[in-house]
Batch of 2 targets.
Target 1
Amino acid sequence: MVFHHKCIAALGVAMFAATLVAGSNSAFAGEADVLAANAVREEGGTYRFDVTVRHDDTGWEHYADRFEVLAPDGTVLGTRILHHPHVEEQPFTRSLTRVMVPADLKQVRIRAGDSVHGTGGAEVTIQLPSH
């Protein structure tokens, strides 16, 4: 079988592109987004946050690995570590309990992070329930 050099070059480019795409699937998962959040005041003045996160987890190499509750000034008030990928469960909701929130705060921000990009996806700002 005889190949022209143009055919070999085109085949090489196609194989390189396929390898590049296959090797970087985790980058295509993007950042973790917070879709929704709810705050419930607990006994003792702390809060429970129920947070729904969406991320195209690909497995252990790229998955949503946390969400954080933040004061309006960016101070982290609490973090829920997510210890495993949720490839087959998207979006998913998890809770973080016993979060101390300063009494003068009326709202908080919720953001998620993933094992490749860190934080940076869609955030949600929610009002805290009154006493």
Target 2
Amino acid sequence: MNKIAHANPSQAGFFANDVFHDLILSGKDNKGKTWIAIVSIVDLCRAVKSLPDQNIQNQTI
């Protein structure tokens, strides 16, 4: 999730075929060094689905 939040949108892309559905992300860290990450959308969805449900009450946004 951190890579998704900090990716440079102008340098993001995706790849999809019958087997793979990936986000291709890149950005720069706080020292200016370029990073790249390939995130499987299927694996990301599985990870989010496995998180326990939380009851959120009386929370001010």
